[in-house]
Amino acid sequence: QVQLQESGPGLVKPSQTLSLTCTVSGDSISSGNYYWSWTRQQPGKGLEWIGYIHHSGSTHYTPSLQNRLTISIDTSRNQFFLHLTSVTAADTAVYYCAKAVPVYFDPWGQGVLVTVSS
Amino acid sequence: ENVLTQSPGTVSLSPGERATLSCRASQSVAGNYLAWYQQKPGQAPRLLIYHAYNRATGVPDRFSGSGSGTDFTLTISRLGPEDFAVYYCQQYGSSPITFGQGTRLEIK
Q1: Which residues of B touch A108 (CB under 8 A)?
Q2: Which of A31, A67, A118, B56 is deepest in the core (most CB within 10 A)?
Q3: Which region, left, alpha or beta, applies to residue B10 given φ > 0 means left and ψ of -120 to 50 means alpha?
Q4: What are the tens digits of pLDDT across the range B10-67?
């Protein structure tokens, strides 16, 4: 079955760019009418959808982050990516990737904690 | 954006009891495109229900979803010890996708 795994630096300095990779296994990222999504969860808080991408390259972003956000995809590597610029402490969170079917999320990766601190 | 409000914030019940969790939307959810997720400490969310009442693969039939428009409910008919967790609703009928703030289901 499809599995997703997030990877990337656990610590990012303020004002720098947060970059994460989600590697998909057990399924082709190019198959079907699926989107590939990012969601985050600040410590002790609820879930916040960030955005998603289709293998065609079409993207949808949440308005509050769209000025700092880029989601991209590499179908040859079965990976998709998150880039968030000009980060602050408010961007400290566990970041999850998930398969969007096409807009409810199943399954999810295990998540990666990213801390923004100098 | 469509704001989802879940109630109660926390509910304390005993194993074997019935749990009823509510999710109210600020606007009608288009297509009744509403999902429910379960999250246990240190774990990723797990899809339980999609399109308001469809159980995801492998979800026990004690979990059921209902509702339409702006009012939705997740019911757990007989609580097992593994059901104590935080539950989130999510709407995907309009952009941006939004989640409720969660209901914590704790053991009484």
Answers
A1: 44-46
A2: B56
A3: beta
A4: 999 999 999 999 999 999 999 999 999 999 999 999 999 999 999 999 999 999 999 9
